Amino acid sequence: MSGLGVIPPDLASQVSAFTARLRDRHGFLIGPGETADALRALGAVDVLERREVRGALRAVLSASPEQLRLFDLEFNAFFRVEGAAQPKLPPLLPETKAPGGEEQTDAGPPPPPQPGQRPAPKPTRAPAPDDTPDPDEDAPDSQAPGQPLDGDDTAPPDDAAVPSLRARLSPNAAPGQAVQAGGDDLPDLLRAASALVRSLHLGRARRLKPQANRGPKLDARRTLRAAARTAGDATLLRWLGRPRRAPRFLLVIDGSRSMGTDATLLLRFAQALHLRSRRVEVYAFSTGLTRLTPALRRAAPGAPLSLLDLGEAWGGGTRIGENLLRLAREERARVNRDTLVLILSDGLDTGEPALVSRALRDLRAQAGQVVWLSPLAALPGYQPVQRAIMAALPFLDALLPVGGAADLHALPRRLKTARR
Amino acid sequence: MNAALPTPADLQAAFLARGYVADDALATALRLVVALGKPLLLEGPAGVGKTEAAKTLAATLGTRLIRLQCYEGLDAQSALYEWNYARQLLHLRAAELGGQGGVTDEDLYSERFLMARPLLQAIREEQAPVLLIDEVDRADDAFEAFLLELLAEWQITVPELGTIEARTRPHVILTSNRSRELSDALRRRCLYHWTEYPSRAQELAIVHARLPGVNETLAQQVTNAVHALRALPLGKPPGVAETLDWAAALVSLHADHLDAPGIRATLGAVLKLREDQLLAAPTLQGLAAQAAAGHQSGA
């Protein structure tokens, strides 16, 4: 845009390197257009004011709250300035390497943590005397700006701060192992998922769409157009009708130790459902709650499902009430009458049943249907006597068994029966 | 920098003069909306002032605010334009009765029968308006896809009239409460800003900016109480709008500090769910007792 400030070439190259870093390390959807916009944005602010530079790049390059956090970490790491003064001079000086990082001349992004790999050592960087007190400016840098982004396989310790790559572990949680949910049953599960998506009819939308034969409202525009053939006499009436509402799914998978292999089956089912519908949200919980939707979105469709380091959400104890309550609050805006909430848990809980009741009541008030799937319910002679199940039962549309793929295939039929 | 465009600091000051406390990041993002001509997607919890930001921007720029409220079922036709069929038929009938005859397509499909909806209004304005596309997450996927085209081209085709190009490019602000995940395509076309609940000091400044006559003690106590409420696991946490409503309600009752009767009388202004009111009761009792003790010692 004319009239905007001129960006020095060295700053332009740094911004370019910064956008490449966001793209390569964290999968930001940034192309040449966004990089050009970032430079134009810098032309519209005072580049000597660090907060304006940060605000401008933030507005252009990030697109969600999750990305905002990563952006802040990377911005601080990339553009931090050594020296006592805040950037009076060209503010976007590259940072010198953190102590201990000398050998990483070509340091690149760390490889993802592998199962059994020794955890990366904790950063030992002493606080620099000029560090600002801003709490979100403490991200250590692992790489000097402008250096190649694809590097060796050694894991720099600094990236431990990046939240997308590591989850903090609670004392009760499993040691944050990766979850391998591979299996050759994906085609089978896809069929089950398709049947579920097709069979679920929660009602009609409020939206009016042109219908072939009939509907509740006359479509004046199409009727008048049709009347052109009959010299203005509206003999052929056209109608607007209400289409079926497309269902949404909210899957909550209990990943605690007691769920065993059932949890991985359900994870694969969640992946299959995700491949069949855009409107699927997936969470896992054990002692903590984690949103899996972004990970499923990134997973290659044909490949075995492999999720890295689920931390508190997998392989630990069970706190159903706390996590469901947190979920009900976080997803409050997204759960509506089009949503089928599927809770996949055995109901073996160490927490307070009152919390389960509160969470289920909230979810029930907002969702189209709330269904609990339990592997224990597939056992002969099962009685729903678990505390969490008893607390949840008054708010459930159905408590259904899920002991294997056959139960998942039977899900549409059982849901239909439960609705009657 | 272009001197004609407001700087972030200018915008902040102008917003403050209109009772809106904007932080640095929001002021910078709004500056970019004006400078780059890109839409801004404002996301955040309900009641943090997203819509108000657009209104204030329009007032600051001295331009018109055109608002499109999105809802499930909103289609392009309702957002763009509509022919006034009833008037067209009346015109035809009147022409017949008056024996005028010869009513042509051009007569019927002319500007006088065209009803401009918000998006068409926005691109026909002489001075770039602020176009607020409010709660875009409530609209369907199809409408979101339609918006992509409009935001890229800034022109609208009315089959009977032809293509209408924008006279000026509106300053577009989209808001979303995240009730639905917006597409990556829409996000990529927009600047992005996440609006969070304000800090205690910011919220106090907002109360003073919007309710200039409010008692300092009451403003502080209300702000503290709202922050304590937000820390509870409420189904519907109070937004800034609720803080202002609550303070205004207490002022209207001539309260100069929080006390139990005042809280009981005005609780509906801040907590809108019965369950939340029950859940928050012990916290509010504690706050009222604390406030009353402070008031007595102060007196």
From TrEMBL, chain A:
One family name in Pfam for this protein: VWA_CoxE
UniProt biased composition (Acidic residues): 131-140
Annotated source species: Deinococcus seoulensis
Compositionally biased spans, kind Pro residues: 108-126
Parts of the chain that traverse the membrane: none
Protein name: VWA domain-containing protein
Region spans: Disordered: 88-162
Lineage summary: Bacteria, Thermotogati, Deinococcota, Deinococci, Deinococcales
TrEMBL record, chain B:
SUPFAM superfamilies: P-loop containing nucleoside triphosphate hydrolases
The organism's place on the tree of life at top rank: Bacteria
Record domain AAA+ ATPase: where: 36-196
InterPro entries recorded: AAA+_ATPase, ATPase_dyneun-rel_AAA, CbbQ/NirQ/NorQ/GpvN, P-loop_NTPase
Pfam families assigned to the protein according to its UniProt record, in alphabetical order: AAA_5
Protein name as catalogued: ATPase
